[in-house]
User: Fold these one by one.
Assistant:
Number 1:
Amino acid sequence: MWIVIRVLLAAAVFATGFAAPRPATARSLAILVGAGDIASCGRHSDDMTAALVAKQGGTVFTAGDNVYDLGSYQDFINCYAGNWGRFKSRTEPAPGNHDYDTAGAAGYYRYFGARAGTPGKGWYAYNRATWRIYVLNSNCSDVGCGMGSAQQRWLAADLAAHPHKCVLAYWHHPLFSSGQHGNNSDARAFWITLYRAGAEVVVNGHDHDYERFAKQNYLGQRRPFHGIREIVVGTGGAGLRPLGPRLPNSLKSRGDTFGVLKLVLLDGSYTWRFLPAGGGTFTDFGRGTCH
């Protein structure tokens, strides 16, 4: 009987020209690995985190402040190219405030070229597996981030034009942080737009620590079913800093361990794991499902 059913199905596919749906395969899996606040001449911690990235496949992301101190092209050549620059061909970068310490982030755009998006904007999107991923520019005084800005309108339009069950975004300045810099309200328009679209995960840098939050909305109210999970991973190599009093929804944090975040993006779900560098023992891991 089963053989007869399979023959009939094959005949139907041939007649209509449409292939029957197939189960998820390895193509439904993607890996993202990276951090923010990365390279600085005279330090070796960026070499340690680069050694972790070298062991991972997939896409390398950066969450801003790619190189210190001024983000010049020469800084990138001297201080970034020899460690994280080894992964340039598979890196999808985001800019940070130190990248903009060189006017217009000229060194950043020159070094990364087309991978950094349009100079003067720096925001773009790409797909991995069944996910839509947004790279945003939170240097708001330079490019504009608020509701109605060109960047926010682009984000809203792209979310509408490319509906995906699973959405992730990363940029430099976190809306929520218990670190030295604290909350950055300039990022709220990003959150509002992503939250309304049902996004899953936001990854940031800026504060030189690791911190994971419970799912919450753009007002910091816990929303276990429809909230966004934010992870701050400013641990790419620049000097670490202790955290202050933890915000209400902060679940896991550490301010003394360099490392990178590994995200495995699956069809309808994802996992995260913090990989410590230099023999560190702190880690954080878990799994989430898409809305």
Number 2:
Amino acid sequence: MAELPRRYFTGHGPATLQDFVWWSGLKISDAKVGIEMVSAQLRRETIDGRVYWMPPGMSALPKASNTVYLLPGFDEYMLGYTDRSASLDPLHTKKILPGNNGAFSATIVIGGRVVGTWKRVFQKQEVVITPSPFTPLSKTETRAFAAAAERYSHFVGKRIGNSK
């Protein structure tokens, strides 16, 4: 009962009790018991009236970063939480969950925020990566996106192709 909340909040923190209940499928009462069992091993912080749990040493408010991450549609960054407003402007929810049927689009994350979606098409020796940002990317963000696309192409073992 203690191991599941410890692992969840270590891997997903900062996160709320509601996030943990949704993710784990536990009853609220059982989730609270589990959290209490490991509360000395976690850090608790209240922000805007909501209690967040996280591993010790983690800041609830991450430092700003221009690193771009290209995440797949079913990444825990979106799936692991009931309230995604810390990472996604609610105005863009339908863009990453277009059919509202649980099929998430792949996301572009900059500075911890989802700023768009992306698609890839595999060709013989290439992978074509097409971004669809919610708002135009700055020159710095565009260069960071290109670096992320390059890392992805290296990961899949194909060179970057040109989109048409």
